[in-house]
Amino acid sequence: MIPQQFGIHVPPQPASASAGAVLQVPYRSRNSWHAGDLVDATDWCIQLSAADVAELDSALRAAQACSLPILRLESEHFPLPNLAARLRQVATSLDGGLGFAAIRGIPAEHYGEADLRTILWGIGQHLGIPVSQNAYGHMLGTVRPSAATEKAAPLTSAGSDVTAVLGLGSGNRSVVVSSAAIFNEILAGWPHLAERLFRTYHLDRRGDQPPGERPYRAVPLACWFDGKLSIRYSRHDIDSAQRYSGVPGLDSDDLALLDLVDELLGSARLRFEVDLRPGEIHLFNNYAVLHAQTHVSSRGRAATDLLELWLTLRHGRALPSAFTWLNGRGGRGEVTPRDVVMPTGIGRSQRP
User: Fold this and answer.
1) pLDDT at 13 over 70
2) Domain named TauD/TfdA-like: which ranges (predicted)?
């Protein structure tokens, strides 16, 4: 499927009637793309100019002059008088466009890690609302990319609207697949399995649930609502939830569907891979794409951590309560923090 920005007319989709509606026709949108469609595309990449970098420098100095903890910095503490408008356009394109973007041109060699954390947080404030990644309330964490081996890295989606990662070292790469393309592939060849995407599955909460709540969450994998298709997927969490007595077992068709999704996620036709250079920020809409970060070892060098930030878009798509969850502070899809919150809000977030 060729996205709209390449000059192809995208016909309107039928409106979804309710939160439980099932999409039964191919999803025609800018978000439905194959890797080959993006070979010559550039609109997913935002290249910062020298003036933009100077503006970031000025914003960093302003934030440092505030003498506030990083989690208390808001957009007014990180002023971007010209760049802010472009970042708002990025946020819009993440929800209505390809579902991912890259911000390039931040000279990582000029900054220490603490400065890069502040820059990522400040840019995030202009894109959306940061939300917690774990029960400790960590909102700006680190993640270790998977080793790039012959086995394809597992692509997943996080709970928040958007995941942002910033590269700290070399040898890293992002892998991204359109979730709408996955749906269209399944619908074309296995329509009886496509319907199952809209059924409820149980996901392990990895011990991050608040006291008194169940250790798993019951949500559909796909949601057809307000004219948009949203998909959230993590095979690891689905399989892991099977250990709980209150979770129904997966039947043969469920397993066939999950195996098919995994197979498609490994398809070279669908996987778009792009280097994540030091200082670059990659952004992923967790309802529109599935993604992973990998590391290609060079001369025995170990993988370097990435900075990671979860965001709620201020003007993101409408979603029913059966598919997402609110935190009461304007954000959605986060892990509800417990009473104990680290003072800096900075911690390590490891992905299986």
Assistant:
1) no
2) 74-301
Average pLDDT over residues 279-297: 94
Q: Is the separation of the CB atoms in 312 and 171 below 8 Å?
A: no
H or E stretch at 254 = helix 252-265
Looking at the 3D structure of the chain, how many domains does it have? 1
What is each CA distance from 121 to 32, 69, 81, 255, in whole angstroms? 30, 11, 17, 39
Decide if 112 contacts 163 (C-beta within 8 A). Answer: no
Strands annotated E in the chain: 45-47, 100-104, 128-131, 140-143, 146-147, 162-167, 172-178, 200-204, 216-220, 222-225, 228-231, 272-276, 281-285, 289-295, 306-313, 346-348
Residue 30 lies in a domain: no
d(CA 131, CA 309): 8
- Asked whether residue 10 is domain-assigned, the answer is no
Q: Quote the domain boundaries for residue 67.
A: 48-348
Measuring CA to CA, which residue among 278, 288, 348, 286 is closest to residue 103?
278
In terms of C-beta density within 10 A (0-12 exposed, 13-18 middle, 19 or more buried), how is residue 18 classed? Answer: exposed
For the domain that residue 99 is a member of, what is the CATH number? 3.60.130.10
Q: For residue 27, tell me if it sits in a domain.
A: no
DSSP reduced 3-state for 15: coil
Q: Which of 177, 121, 208, 173 is nearest to 297 (CA)?
A: 173
Separation CA 293–CA 232 (nearest Å): 17
What is the average per-residue pLDDT within 118-142?
93
Residue 75 carries which DSSP code?
G
Residue 246 lies in a domain: yes
